[in-house]
Specification:
Pfam families: AICARFT_IMPCHas (PF01808), MGS (PF02142). This protein is an alpha/beta fold and about 525 residues long. It contains 18 helices and 23 strands. Helix content is about 35%, strand content about 20%. The strands form 6 sheets. The chain has a 6-stranded mixed sheet with strand order 10-15-14-13-11-12, sandwiched between helices. Strand 16 and strand 17 form a beta hairpin.
Length: about 525
């Protein structure tokens, strides 16, 4: 997109004579008002903001004194008046505007400070009703912000208390505000209102949607957290958006890279499914599990997970669902790992793990709320959207389709394998026994090849496949899949079912004395 040069706009430093302050979040507003007063700026304000400034013994003029019109409709109309918006939108470098403003008795307003009703915070409350939500839709605030940002050549606009210190520093230098600062604040202002409008639009999009529907329009607005050194590869530019610090604290080691973020996301999604399980350890590489295990002791869970594949974990990601203790830390510390993720760490474990400066240590502050999570993927001409795959199958939902029913131990192994296979890339095959992955086959174009990969890995690690359970993320289209599993030593199978040849697969399982259950749902992952 080609943009016209900014040289066509007035770029002189701006002297502020009048400022309009009307904020919902009053953090640091007194410090800002005091600075403005010290620079002989007339402060115009509304409602609670004016009251707070007045209580600090700082002179303030009510908007109604400027407009000659009192606030009305229970405060719904405060600043929506030509004298206010004329003062904000008037181009003081444009003589016809000045002439008209003089004729209408409109004085310029060179600074607008406002932030908006807390709509996002309001609707985040589960008890929020549509009536409460709509009362927290700001009208006057966005109108003033957009007006000031549009006229940034002549007006400054502040939309967050985080900007006040920068503004105060700038004003204290020579009593003026530079053009680059005004331009930057205008950009932030338009992003601020865009995000606010998106939140409101998304609320209404979802208000009447049933569980079977997704929104009619996709509105995404995420603030840039920071730039990354590069993307998936060094020649790709990259940045991270949103607020990851709500969920994790990377408190030791280098900044996370693009690939680190994707691995951490995969690890968090996995550990959420095992959060309430016995001590669990997952080892990931390129967003794919290398080994998963549960045990009464976390150190033992690590040993079992690592045993699945002792080669791939080097440079990988380790995630656990319990406090990481010294015994487990000692085990992990024997190999190079890029990232360790845990809800907490013992003091002794930290002392050991922090000796390696480049290793990243992450504390899980809270798990992402995946209940209503929507996933997106960019494609040609737009994006794909789907709700997250959150399905966890319980014992009572399993449908036994073979003559032999699975034993109690086999059911436990099958459910464990099924929870793991959900996080393996398709075509996905998992062999498991005693809450431990024995072999993982991932990403092959043939389901039999994925099974062969899992078998080969188990044999490479000298792990016995006898009496294992095998999980397949999608149905076996032919009997060869279960035949290969039985030949390897598996005694039970869990799969979605749904193939046109299910009867042939079931017959083959019966002939091999396998116990096979259907889940009725698939776990493709691409």
């Amino acid at each position: 997109m080609s943009l016209q040069p900014l040289s066509q706009l007035p770029q002189d430093p701006l002297t502020i004579n009048r400022a309009l302050l009307s904020v919902s979040d009053k953090t640091e507003i007194i410090n800002l008002a005091r600075c403005l007063h010290q620079h002989d700026v007339q402060i115009i304000s509304t409602g609670g903001t004016a009251q707070k400034i007045r209580e600090a013994d700082i002179p303030v003029t009510d908007v109604s004194e400027i407009t000659g019109f009192e606030e009305c409709l229970d405060g719904r109309v405060k600043t929506l008046h030509p004298i206010i918006h004329g003062g904000i939108l008037g181009r003081t470098s444009h003589q016809p505007d000045l002439d008209e403003m003089q004729k209408l008795d409109i004085d310029p307003i060179e600074l607008v400070v406002t932030n908006l009703y807390p709509f996002k915070e309001t609707i985040a409350n589960p008890d929020c009703t549509p009536a409460v939500a709509t009362e927290n839709i700001d009208i006057g605030g966005p109108t003033m912000i957009r007006a000031a940002a549009k006229n940034f050549a002549h007006v400054g606009v502040l939309t967050s208390p985080s900007q006040y210190a920068d503004f105060i520093s700038e004003l204290n230098q020579d009593g003026k505000i530079s053009f680059p600062k005004r331009k930057e604040w205008a950009k932030q202002a338009f992003n601020h209102t865009a995000g606010y409008d998106n939140a409101v639009a998304n609320y209404f999009n979802n208000l009447d949607n049933t569980e079977d529907e997704l929104a009619d329009q996709l509105n995404i607005s995420l603030p840039k957290s920071h730039s990354l050194r590069y993307g998936e590869n060094p020649h790709q530019k990259a940045a991270v958006y949103g607020n990851q610090s709500t969920f994790i604290d990377c408190f030791h080691g280098k900044q996370l890279s693009y690939n680190n973020y994707t691995d951490v996301d995969a690890a968090l999604n996995f550990i959420a499914d095992f959060w309430d399980s016995k001590p669990t350890c997952g080892i990931f590489k390129h967003t794919t599990p290398c080994g998963i295990a549960c045990d009464d002791k976390l150190a033992k869970a690590w040993q079992k997970a690592f045993a699945t594949d002792t080669m791939s974990p080097f440079g990988g990601i380790v995630v656990v669902n319990k406090e990481l203790d010294l015994d487990t830390a000692k085990e992990i510390d024997e190999i190079f790992t890029e990232i360790i993720i845990a809800p907490s760490y013992s003091k002794e474990a930290l002392n050991l793990l922090q000796e390696k400066k480049k290793r990243r240590l992450i504390r899980i502050k809270k798990l992402p709320n995946t209940e209503n999570a929507i996933q997106f993927r960019s494609i040609f001409g737009g994006a794909l959207s789907q709700d997250s795959d959150l399905k966890i199958v319980g014992k009572n939902e399993l449908q036994t389709v073979t003559k032999r029913k699975p034993s109690k131990q086999e059911i436990e192994d099958l459910l464990f394998a099924w929870k793991v296979v959900k996080h393996v890339k398709s075509n996905a095959i998992v062999y498991a026994k005693d809450n431990q992955t024995i072999g993982i086959g991932t990403g092959q174009t043939s389901r039999v090849e994925s099974s062969q990969t899992a078998i080969a890995k188990a044999q490479q690690e000298r792990l016995s496949l006898e009496n294992t359970a095998i999980a397949s993320d999608a149905f076996f289209p032919f009997p060869d899949g279960v035949e290969a599993a039985a030949e390897a030593g598996a005694t039970s199978v869990i799969q979605p079912g749904g193939s046109i040849r299910d009867d042939q697969v079931i017959k083959a399982a019966d002939n091999l004395d396998l116990a096979m259950v259907f889940t009725g749902n698939r776990h493709f992952r691409h």
